[in-house]
């Protein structure tokens, strides 16, 4: 998307777009041609005005009393999210979490292409995990700079103590974004896009809601 940044838009709206996209693809498979905000809102228990605002950030406009053409709306969301093009990535840290990420087939549908994984363990180096080769971390910079096209994204799933060091190496080889699965707050240049995945924070929300439900079973949590 030219001339705009995802950061310029409400993050909750951006986060809802993949949910809408999955629903729209289901509608396309069923042969549906058009869809309304009301229909989408009913599916997810939201207000239609909120759905309309969410979709508006993609730049698409629906037709009054008709809605959106399903195919056009799918294209608009995928273009806005950058999922209509292939983006190469390196994953550093081929442990349990890293291996699980390598095994998630959904990333391919979203245009994320993990071309190589890296690890410091001799037991991991040389393995093929979910069709992805694992190389030594010390070879990452050389491999990255030898590529004709730079890797765009670095996925960091290493222990917290080495996260900053790995992030620095990824920046040195030219990545433009880092997907950080560690609890470390990374110090990065302003031009690097960083998204922190806070698993413990997400679990804290889940566990606190579960506790509240056990104490107040009739309240909505």
N to C succession of SSEs = HEHHEHEHHEEEHEHEEH
In CATH, the homologous superfamily of the largest domain goes by the name NAD(P)-binding Rossmann-like Domain
Distance between the termini: 37 Å
**Number of DSSP E strands:** 9
Descriptive notes:
By secondary structure, this protein is an alpha/beta fold. Helices cover 42% and strands 17% of the residues. It has nine helices and nine strands. It has helices at 11-29, 37-44, 48-56, 70-81, 96-102, 106-109, 140-146, 163-172, 199-215; strands at residues 34-35, 68-69, 87-92, 112-119, 128-129, 132-136, 153-156, 177-180, 193-196. The strands form two sheets. It has a seven-stranded mixed sheet. Helix 8 (163-172) links the parallel strand 7 and strand 8 (177-180). It is globular and about 60 Å long. It starts with 10 loop residues before the first helix and ends in a 6-residue tail after the last helix. Mean pLDDT is 92; it is low at 1-7.
Provide keyphrases for this structure.
alpha/beta; two-stranded antiparallel ribbon; Arc Repressor Mutant, subunit A; Rossmann fold; seven-stranded mixed sheet; 9 helices; 221 residues
Summarize the topology:
Blueprint: H1 11-29, E1 34-35, H2 37-44, H3 48-56, E2 68-69, H4 70-81, E3 87-92, H5 96-102, H6 106-109, E4 112-119, E5 128-129, E6 132-136, H7 140-146, E7 153-156, H8 163-172, E8 177-180, E9 193-196, H9 199-215
Parallel strand pairs: 3-4, 3-7, 4-6, 7-8, 8-9
Antiparallel strand pairs: 1-2, 5-6
Helix pairs in contact: 1-4, 2-3
